[in-house]
Protein 1
Amino acid sequence: MNYKLNRLENGVRVLTVSLPKMESATITIWVGVGSRLEDKKTNGISHFLEHMVFKGSKKRPTALEIAEAVDALGGEFNAGTSKEWTNFYIKARAANIDTAFDVLSDMVLNPILAEAEIEKEKGVIIEEIAMYEDTPMIKIGDVFEQLIFEGNSLSWDIAGTPESVKGISRKDFVDFREKHYFAGNILITAAGGVRKAEVLRLAKKYFGELSPGEKGSQTKGFASKQKKPQVKLHPKKKEQAHFILGFLGNPRGHPDRFTEAILASILGGGMSSRLFSEIREKRGLAYAVRTSVDRYVDTGNFSTYAGVDIKRIDEAIKVALGEHYGVADGKRPISKTELKKAKEYVKGHLALALEDTKDVSAFFGEPELFLRKIETPESIFAKIDEVTTEGILRVAKKLFIPEKLNLAIIGPYKDQARFEKLLA
């Protein structure tokens, strides 16, 4: 897997990952802005703008013309918005990357932003927000981050609120693009059967005239004021309860990230993980159980999700909490066999993901966008192999403390004190 990072004269970064045996390629445009850089009045504008670039551009004034251009390649295209980035991609035959660059650049750099389309899309996004509200497996993540990042823009929903979406105008889009969509805040990744020289030529052709911009986007820093365990209830009459139990964690690029990945795998990374075995297999309390780590530029969290029987949620929370604290206090030590299995689980999942050029693009793109650092799969595998049981114990002791503990719940509950007692 050969990669090369170049920078155009105006500051646009171009990262080429050549996979000569691949017939496909994914071209992704990354912009270093997401919902945490918005203001309250226009919360959701990053995500809204992601929608609007598909509605018509200078060369292809309608959504249909854009779709036909990609369909003519037999390709797929989409976009995504997070709290810290927005991206747009086309995946197609490597022979068609010129057209992919042409379509993507026009969408991202020259959206029409027609007022009639903006008004129409408001209804679509408000329905999307309603869909998430009715999908607790997704919504619980928002509720958890509202709790753990309370008081900071990180706690805001990526899609915004119905009220904020209704208030966004064409001028808001123009001002937002001028502030964030400049050369120094853009990264292009090309992964698959592509050559560096060709990718660089196309990047210069389509992005070389973009304004350099005056300065980078400014993140609103997060500083936790938490002093004790916290609970947030999102009352909802459902047949199933959903909770996330998690701890305030570490930012992107933290040196303990590989150890944390192994710890997450041991606790809730697969069907033989501790939490899956204890909560689902032994007690029949839940169908879905998983542990994950989320990171941002200045903070992060380590969390476990479960969808459980509404009458037995207390038991499930106790078991989950016991497994976390059991690692930290040494009462549930990790065996060498368990450690080896977790390492292979993490490495195996990464290897499988990297069989897709879209995932390769993301693997290299996101770290470069924020950390200005490229890590290869081989270097990550080596770091994972260095993880020790002693290191896991050290990390667990730092992470799993009451002052960092948060519990978010969706279900038919109103008594918050009931759950606060479980965490005390």
Protein 2
Amino acid sequence: MPKLKFVLFVDVEGDFYYYVPSPHFSKKEVFKWKINRIIGKLFRYANPTIKGIKNIVNTLNENNFPACFCIAGHLYLTECNGWQHFSEKKPENKWYYNKIGNDWYYWDLGRNSKTNHGFYFGDFIKKKMKGNKLFSFGLHGFAHEALTLEKKEVVESIVKSGAEASKKIGIKSENFAAPFDMVSDEKKPNVLFDILKKYKIKNVIYSGLDNGFERKRFFDVRKILKNEKLNMIWLSDYFEGSFSNKKMKRVLEKINKNIKEDAVYCLATHDFTHKTNKNILKLVKYLKKMEKEKNIEILNLNYLK
């Protein structure tokens, strides 16, 4: 049995990338984000946001490759009337307004998958993903919130609303990847963990604690940690559909360097970066070859105890 286990998970953000900047962005980075948003808006009509998740799903299906999709709760919807959708409370930390001068839900005017496809993936999930044993499902916040910066009541309303959104189309969310990887804070390390256990989440992607806005997280290759009934899967690295061949080579080499580790290698990506299937196909073929040579075991989180 290979020592190194491999997990692929996908942060599914749709158009949230264009509407929600990182709390860690400097003024210069916020400016660049605004420019990217304008450029992205111009080109999304010809190359819709949903094309990214379609490329990933089709490639994984064709190659019988399992993955965990942690989806922003709003994206499970097929339509809505705008905020408030379920019981979610608006984030209270002022960082968001200070960055862009807008209310958190300024983008949500209440539409559907035909009029505003970037915020409604429910139809696609039901038709192309639901019931597929290769795919496990989870949450990525509800509207891509920075959870460690919020009080417990806000965090719980976000998790609850995400669970309700997925349930609405018959999906049980059992995994969680926090937006911006902000899972735990030194001052209140267990807030999110306690809430996830309450809503019967089984697995959470984790990379260490932060301290407020100070990032102290890091990539690593570790065994799965246990927090009572919650599996904490340490994040090992990211790759994107927009990576160059040189960057992809580094990603694959890093996996190969860890094959003797008795641990889990958790690799993440974002749906919206996969305008083509070139990089996801390269990764899948490489890992399937490694599995055939018994160098790794590719995990399906559906069957993780």
Protein 3
Amino acid sequence: MLNKILILTGGPVKKLEAFVKPADELGLNVTLASFYDLEFENKKDSNEFKLTVQGKDLVNFDLIYIRMVGKRLEDATMVVNYAKDKKIKIVDKAYEDSLFIPSTISKAMEMKKLIEAGIPLPETYFGSLYLIKEKVAKILGFPFVLKSTSGKKARDAWLVDDNETLDFLVSQLREREKMGDRFFGQKLIKATQRIRALVVGEKVIGAITRPTKWRKSYTKGMVADVEAKKGALIPVAQKYSDIAIKASNAADLDVAGIDILEEDKTGKLYVIEANAAPSWNLIKKDCGIDVEKEILKYITPGVW
């Protein structure tokens, strides 16, 4: 039985406050903390290493759930390494791997896992901006979507219609590339709706639909554009549940937001995101689901 649970985030602890009420309702001993709360010290003539959070050695917890890493990769690495050494259960499964940078942080590694598992992705080209400029138009054709691997999602994606636009974006992004950012191109899937499915364990607990960002570039005057919808998918179609669960398993995620596109003409499904730290506020609102309670119930199976 998992009695003592630590939930960590890369930002302020207030981001975790929604876990307080369901934890009380379920009678769980849950500690909420930030990576900023981590400490260790080297004492004179001692080779003992203790990693603490809010003054507690992590060995005092039965399970650690990392809600969000953000930019705190060094801190997360310490926590995961310590948890593995001390046999502390950790969520997500991805942290059990010994990758230098886990796929929860690296979009490139995420795509590698999905590709190798046979999950349908849009046609993709990954390379330096120089290689993207030279090759991507021939490989993918116009229009395509240029994205960063930084995890900023829709805020770091651009529609590329022609060589002039591509040249401009490459010139604008070169400084970021020099600082370590990487980019890739993906074929534009003509889908007017994007589905976000929230997977907890082996179950999709809720899903919503939203209009896609660039639908108007190819639906001008079409009925499909007028009928763009926002709302919950109740019930969640089996085809969405199936591909979402397959994608989360492929990415070694226990809790995941899976973004799916359904091509308007063919009905073919594509996964464009397997997010280990999804925002679920809209799913809570539209679907009427207490997401935090569902996660707590999932990570404490011996209690129920």
Protein 4
Amino acid sequence: MRAHLDHNATTALRSEARDALLEALDRLAGNPSSVHTSGRAARALLDDARERIAGALGVQEDDLLFTSGGTEANNLALAGALGASGGHAALVTTAVEHSSVLEPARRLASSGHPVRVVAVDGAGRPDIAEVVGAAAGTALVSVMAANNEIGSTCDLRALVAALDERYGVDRPRVHTDAVQTLGKLPLDLAAWGVDLASLSGHKIGAPVGVGVLVRRRRTPLQPLFLGGGQEAALRPGTENVAGIHAFAVAVELAVHEQPVFAARARKHVEKLWRGVQDSLPDARLLGPPLEDPRRLPNTLSILVAGIDGRTLVARLDLAGLEASAGSACASGSLEPAHVLLALGLTPSEARAGLRLSTGRATSDTEIAHAVEILSATLGKAS
């Protein structure tokens, strides 16, 4: 038996989404932009998926721009919003964002856009007052809803309210990378007041290669690609209708199941942490305290001093436990995790991080097996 505890990297295609995907692939023969019968059938399925996703997220149907995933959605949000603002529009973001936000930010900075990166506290949260202060004269603020590595979150509703109070109608637009939030914590884009939000399918059991940028209030964007007029001419290219249809099923289920999943995930993470503490009392919990209701319920990030995280991941894998030393997008890097460095850890400490993340299919038996493997492996490591 193997224990897979790397669901923040990706999670298995759920059966309902697989059935929807295969159904669509079997049914569809046309391009949704074509006006003939097959094209209209594809368009109808796409429109139905758009309606279902919008309903589940509490937004308008024309707020949705379908993309290839969270990375493209983040890139479109940043480059698209600044490009539409004209000139060298400024950006504010934080030090713990996903690389698909920080790398575009660096590219934008190199092309003349002022970019301000706000630090975070020891739990991985930015100070809202500092973000608001840094936002003077900027076009866009990008702050993630929940961090994929350490489980920290930002009170976006409070952030947007503070920006409104400080800048009024001239406040910058607000984007959030909400990829890790969907299905794990309550997601209420309308109440948060954000203008742009990125979501990804494969984090909730939909196929890889589909995501969405939610664009509320007709937020102006400049497209990344040029071509056809699909997705309000902001994401040209033939839509992945079958993938989007499966994504709609997964979104509805993720939103509906969120409270139950969160409660179960918290119990699983607490049991994992107790197992780590029993075998390695010096292990350090990273991110917010486990009892903090705002943290990602399924994510456990720990520091195992003196052990390279990638080496530990390899040992655990050989023993039957799949975990991560950080973000899957940076797993091949020899550099210490930027999120852990942002917490104030030394490079040596940042290389000693281990992330465990549970998913919808994680069972009590799998958790018990993982605890056994952790106890044996960490005991030898100490």
